[in-house]
Amino acid sequence: MRRITRIATAGIASAALALSVTACGSDKKSDTAGDAKGGKAAIAYDIGGRGDQSFNDAAYAGLAKAEKEFGIKGTEAEPSEGEGDPDKVQRLTSLARAGNNPVIGVGFAYAPAIAEVAPKFPDTTFGLIDDTSKTGKNIANLVFNEEQGSYLAGVAAAKVTKSNTVGFIGGVETPLIKKFEAGFVQGVKDTNKNVNVKVQYLTQPPDFGGFSKPDLGKAAAQGQIDAGADVVYAAAGLAGSGSIEAAAKAKKWAIGVDSDQYKQSGLAAYKEYILTSVTKDVSGAVFNLIKSVQDGKPQSGEVRYGLDANGVGLSTSNPAFTEMTEVIAAVDKAKADIAAGTIKVKTAP
């Protein structure tokens, strides 16, 4: 049975941390996890945690699939609001000591913690999603060409807008989220240079609340809609659900991110207005990493997922979108041109 653990945060004694892990049934044999086959694997969630209808939920789907196929025991560790690197170090250390292999940090915020913890557990594979800045023999950097999927979203937005104004909302202004912005804006402008793109970020580092607060996404989207936008694309994690709500209530188009948000149960009330979503195969990346450990050939180094292997893409779940034959044709052409190298998508605005 899967366990969701809220592992001790800053200010809690390390003895209490050890006790909490032991209470979950951990094995304190050594600092090496060994083979995961018939054993355990863990994911430590990013800001917003499971239930964000987006990034974290995609990671969970990969863990759930691995549990079903390999019979492993999956553990999920939730973040705490306002936590720092020491909290993440404690969390990853506890998961590794409990015998989980691999241990996967969902999001670039785990980079410093994984760099600190991984050398202490050389027989455990650590997965780091969305970051290549920290590397090691037992670290797999699971990264995506987000700008490529976002380019396709820009093509679609430019094709469907009637006001010639569309919006982009980024959760936090980081290099990763600016990849989404860069691809989207380029896709819009390459399709119709007369379309205005309004860009807004919800928070600035070190405030990462822009990934976890739907009210901020809702307010930002409403502001863009009031300014004339009739398509809004948000790359903002849980905060993006607020953007989708605002667009739907205004009967404007929303573009989702990371997961196929048209299919997310928590957004079912708004799905009619979710035109499409820029998908990242986070679930596949998590599953593939667990499988590699199961097979005795753990991944390490950069493992990149791009448009060519459907690592990123554009969902077609909304029937209204698939019926837009001219839009679909433009998206398909752009996808082919990116794959052929005819279109080079920027990774920074």
From TrEMBL:
Compartmental location? Cell membrane
Entry membrane topology: Lipid-anchor
Q: Which InterPro entries match?
A: BMP_lipoprotein, Peripla_BP_I, PnrA-like
Q: Does the keyword section mention Isomerase?
A: no
Q: Which UniProt keywords apply?
A: Cell membrane, Lipoprotein, Membrane, Signal
Report whether Cell membrane shows up as a keyword of the record: yes
Annotated ABC transporter substrate-binding protein PnrA-like domain ranges read 46-333
SUPFAM superfamilies noted in UniProt: Periplasmic binding protein-like I
Q: Name one GO cellular component term.
A: plasma membrane
User: Which Gene3D superfamilies has this protein been placed in?
Assistant: 3.40.50.2300
Annotated signal peptide = 1-23
Which protein family is it in? Belongs to the BMP lipoprotein family.
Name recorded for this polypeptide = ABC transporter substrate-binding protein
What is the scientific name of the source organism? Answer: Streptomyces fradiae ATCC 10745 = DSM 40063
